[in-house]
Amino acid sequence: MSKNLSALPSIKSKVAEMVTPTAEERAAVDRIAREVCTRAEAAAERHGIRVRAEIEGSVAKDTWIASDRDLDVFIIFPEGTPIQMVKGKGLEIAKEAAGKGWKLGYAEHPYVEGNIKGFRVDIVPSIEMRKGDRPTTSVDRTPLHTDFVKSKADSTLRSEIRILKQFMKGIGVYGAELRVGGFSGYLCELLVLGYGSFEGVLKAVSRWKEGEVVEVAGGAAQKSNMKGTLLYVPDPVDLRRNAAAAVTANAYASFIAASRAFLGSPDEKFFFPPRPKISSADLVKMLNEKESLIMGISFKCPAVPSDILWGELNKSLSRMAKAIEGEGFQVLDSAAWSDEAEIAYFLFELDRATLPNWRSHTGPMVYLAAESDNFLSKYLKNEDVVSGPYIRGSRWCVDLRRRFTSIEEIIRKDLPRMGISKHVADSLSRGFDLILGESLGTAASSNKELLAYLYDFVRKKPAWLQ
Amino acid sequence: MSKNLSALPSIKSKVAEMVTPTAEERAAVDRIAREVCTRAEAAAERHGIRVRAEIEGSVAKDTWIASDRDLDVFIIFPEGTPIQMVKGKGLEIAKEAAGKGWKLGYAEHPYVEGNIKGFRVDIVPSIEMRKGDRPTTSVDRTPLHTDFVKSKADSTLRSEIRILKQFMKGIGVYGAELRVGGFSGYLCELLVLGYGSFEGVLKAVSRWKEGEVVEVAGGAAQKSNMKGTLLYVPDPVDLRRNAAAAVTANAYASFIAASRAFLGSPDEKFFFPPRPKISSADLVKMLNEKESLIMGISFKCPAVPSDILWGELNKSLSRMAKAIEGEGFQVLDSAAWSDEAEIAYFLFELDRATLPNWRSHTGPMVYLAAESDNFLSKYLKNEDVVSGPYIRGSRWCVDLRRRFTSIEEIIRKDLPRMGISKHVADSLSRGFDLILGESLGTAASSNKELLAYLYDFVRKKPAWLQ
């Protein structure tokens, strides 16, 4: 496997150089963060509340990578504070700390997203917890994660963490948010702490199987949590929690495959994948050449926080795929895309655009007398019957006329009945565009990100395999 | 269920009248049969061999129905005669007994098919056996079957047997030959002996489930024979044998469904189903309206005995269906048809005529390192790859260009590689016609039987359900 590992040190140092923030960048981030903390504590004082405002996450741990423009500030209420107080007063304080132009974020728990000098600053109210306690809300663990990593990671390990994060970013599996379904920053940190180095992680990962249990940095596995998980990494700060719960099958497999490929032939492209410049005309040509039907449904992106948006998009997508397959099409591929602001797309690749005007319908076993009688009385004089009823093997069957024969008709008439999630359904009910085949290339012409996404959807090969 | 059973007696007497041979018919058959026996015994004497020539089957048992033009004459060698003698001298004697125009028949065992005054006379050499013995060849049991039924069936039961046979004929399940896969004459006789009357049989059958064991007329079931059979009727003459072994799932289910329907509403149409007069133009119209693709492959019928022909046709058909599905089509229905002399047809109903120019190919789990490496080295730089390789779920996949995209191409190029049986393959290699959609209606215009068969193939509804 490791023929060219001699190239590894120079690749790592190049990557490290690119992802380690400069002294100026650090100073800028630090200034912003301290400003927000000060404002938060001042606001709390005005409300007559005693809280601690603290920088958390990768900035506090000094494991952030230069391209990240995210910053976490926590407003920490004392142990035992009622959750309603945190949700009410905590949010007030967060808004005041954010300054102008904030918006509300919401995962399981409300917080404020501020935009300060090009940085996205998440200001999150939480409740103090101690190692081993049960958290009141899931964010309460974050300060403990910060402390844990700060206490374990020296500057060498921090550099290894940055390199791993950039690797995950390059192969598209960095981030626990639903949009990615990949590996959180904290999980990257745990893996490096456990395996000691970037290549230590990759060597272990390249041998991962399904249902891997990784006990790193004092995280002892609890058997009851292991069932049915793809990857189980006990959180050293709260052993009941699987730090890898968000990792999807695709992200897991991609990380394994990419680790193996990288160790076989280390290359910078894993960290910084080349993005081909793709024009609308190129995409039209590609779509034209592929004889399957690629279909897009574009609509206004619902104004909901990112994780809610992607939860709804993913659920709606899989229900639509099921409904379309139920009609008799083969769904060869499907995906959701959104800029999280203006537009969202459902994408489907189907084996065809239209179906024959009937489908075969299988009824009861001939042996079941009552069921057979029902079947026959239902279909013997039914206008939708094209052929039959007839017996095939041991069962009654009948060929029935279809309501719709084109995918276009099905989408236009049946979309509301496909089990679409609430906010997406609301948006779709206000209108959508149905775009078939090469027209997708034209429709995406003004949106570079969408063009790139569609290119990947058609080409399918991961960038690190090119 | 039995609302209108009051109509039953008059229907039965009408049917009995139509199927019971007249005195003249009996006399004619008797004359022919005795003539053949006399000729056989004379021929044996010329060869210096002592045999017994005997009328067997439904004529001997007086259970034949008027429309049947079949007659069995057995040349019975004494117990212990070597099988080679039977196959050699026996066949010689049979040929001499047949007179002009005979041809060789062959099931498991050679015999002679004579054509005498419009009757098909099977002249079959066999070896005497006694009840309970193991037969040397399967035909050796026939004289015991004749004796058994003659000893049990009085004229009332013989009439019931005739009515049941005509019922089975009407619904298309009469005959154990491979073409039908249904109920032999002897099995009909056993059922009537067991259940006492035509309606006794139907009442029992309408309650049959899968794996029915029917011990009639002293046939005690042997457990070792029961496994996995749909219907097990121990032969009272040889308990090791299942007299219902030839019954296919379709024939079994059809008999049950028709029995139930008949008892619910007795009608002559079950015995003499109306055959709509269908023209080539009607069929063209029907084929045109059905948006699936109906395809016929017509070729010269191989000159082999009926059971060999149908064995090969059925086996070839199911292999072709498998191959066609393997290419990506849905086989909605398939059938073989032949006049057993001039032509044979394979018929397929497919969901479409062409496929997209590529198909998805699923590779190994990403976890399997060696298999993944093989997969990648095979497809990374392969000209047949349209998209990918990519990861879906936990597996490597790749979209590959198809060799052929139309069913026409596939049949023309790949038919020889579909596992066609010998004689059929020989015939196909000498040429075939591929006939698609409505052209089938035109191609069948001069053949009434084929027209009727195609009509059924498209319409699918059994005649007794119309």
Quick take:
Chain A is of the alpha+beta class.
Task: Characterise this structure.
- Two copies of one chain form a homodimer.
- With 466 residues, the first copy, chain A, is α+β, with helices and mostly antiparallel strands.
- The first copy, chain A, folds into four domains: 19-139, Beta Polymerase, domain 2 (2-Layer Sandwich), CATH 3.30.460; 153-273, CCA tRNA nucleotidyltransferase, domain 2 (Poly(a)-polymerase, middle domain); 280-354 and 405-465, 2-Layer Sandwich (Alpha-Beta Plaits); 358-401, Alpha-Beta Plaits (2-Layer Sandwich).
- Chain A is 42% helix and 20% strand.
- The first copy, chain A, contains 16 helices and 16 strands.
- Chain A has a five-stranded mixed sheet with strand order 1-2-5-4-3, sandwiched between helices.
- In chain A, helix 2 crosses helix 4 (83-98), helix 8 crosses helix 9 and helix 10 packs parallel to helix 16.
- The mean pLDDT of chain A is 92.
- The interface between A and B is large, with 50 and 50 residues.
List its salient traits.
homodimer, 466 residues, alpha+beta, Beta Polymerase, domain 2, Poly(a)-polymerase, middle domain, Alpha-Beta Plaits, 4 domains, five-stranded mixed β-sheet, four-stranded antiparallel β-sheet, 16 helices, 16 strands
Distance between the termini of chain A: 19 Å
Largest sheet of chain A: 5 strands, mixed
Portion in beta strands of chain A: 15-25%
Percent helix range of chain A: 40-55%
CATH class descriptor of the largest domain in chain A: Alpha Beta
pLDDT averaged residue by residue of chain A: 92
The gross shape of chain A turns out to be globular
